[in-house]
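Extended Data, panel c. Modelled sequence:
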Amino acid sequence: MTSLSRATLASLPAAIARPARDLQSIRTGIVHFGPGAFHRAHQAAYVDRVLETDPRWGIAAVSLRSPGTVDALKAQDGLYTLAVIDREPSMRILAAHSDAIGPGEGAKLRTLLADPAVRIATSTVTEKGYCLTGEGTLDLAHSDIVHDLQRPAEPRSVIGWIVAGLADRHAAGTAPFAMLCCDNMTGNGGKLRAACAALAREQDPALAAWIEAEVAFPDSMVDSITPASDPAFLTQVAQALHVQDKAAVQRESFTQWVLQRFDMADGPDLGSAGVTLTNDVRGYEQAKLRILNGAHSSLAYIGLHLGLETVFEAMSDPALEHFVSRLMHYDIAASLKPVEGLDVAGYADAVLDRFRNPAIRHLLSQIAWDGSQKLPYRLLDTVQDALDHDRNIERLAVPVAAWIAFVRRKAQAQEKITDPLAETLAAAATGSDVAAAMLGLRQIFPERLATDPRFRHAVADALVQFLDGHIEGLLAR
């Protein structure tokens, strides 16, 4: 079977949307580190819309470790399929990538980063890829950072490459590129700025000062479920296109990119492509943590108690769906401060609609992992805010109790608890007074919250009903 390329683009079935612009006119204005499925389904889709009217912003996809994706993009002239999986699925061809750079092409990458036409660099390399410590600062003892300090002209890490590119511009008196971290880390722009400055400071204090003063590192938040492109999916795409596409990706219809405003004269009009530009990324992050992630955890622990397997199945249970909807709209929404451009009720409705997507198989068991790390930010902060403002916490106590019941069932059955505190949780959950033992874990429950009699009573009362198997009344709250 022939492959997707510019030569085969015209032969695709009429149902497949494709770029209408002149692909020869696209120039490189963005360098992206980490062209995995999420980048290709998310940021590249936004840039593809920008390119419809402004050809300056083609993306050079850079993979520092693995050649697979960049080789596929090269073979396909940068083209690939984006499949949107929802009640009404669709496919379209994206042409946002103007170049691709793989391992061993460092000289080409160095030249590109120094090119004044490149105004933006972006990254999706996961939190691990930035070589940070647990406190979010640069790990100077990391093997890649040690290498980059010894051989700064031949970097190994993303941080090393960013600093090398900026160093070349600083030496040449060229304006820096803006650096946009698109990985989900709180305050990701600030963390990346600090990490780059820390590495630069070891090499040249003047460069570090220039980076801190002149280079834009806006915070951002991104969101869209992007399932893996497994062989079955790639076969489905080939059948739909009648050509092979080794770089095809899929995602849900919902997509969100929230970006802190930053100064760039004559930059890309990302707002016209659907990017939310704001001065309060943190507000959006908090809304996502509490509404989306808080509801996800609630569905997981309650749904697993009911014997359900996926988010879609949980949302198909009328009592559970109604409970989570009330939890989001009344209890969680009340804990959020007003955020510029964010309609909280509309966002909650959009999240609920995402949960109802039958095409996304999101396992409750996976969402339930690492509860000790997730609950403080997803649910407990919301509970504390409700207590501080004298709001009712009866509904909010239910998912907390559901998590405790979940841990207890796992411990009693001697099943694996996927959590960094697994042994501690198992010991606490098998005691005679489960609620008191679990609420006594200060790694999870802060003193002020855990000792509040309103919270202790609400959790203990809900837990009894979970352990007795009678939760109809809880879901009716």
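The two ends are 57 Å apart (CA to CA). This feature is highlighted in the accompanying rendering.
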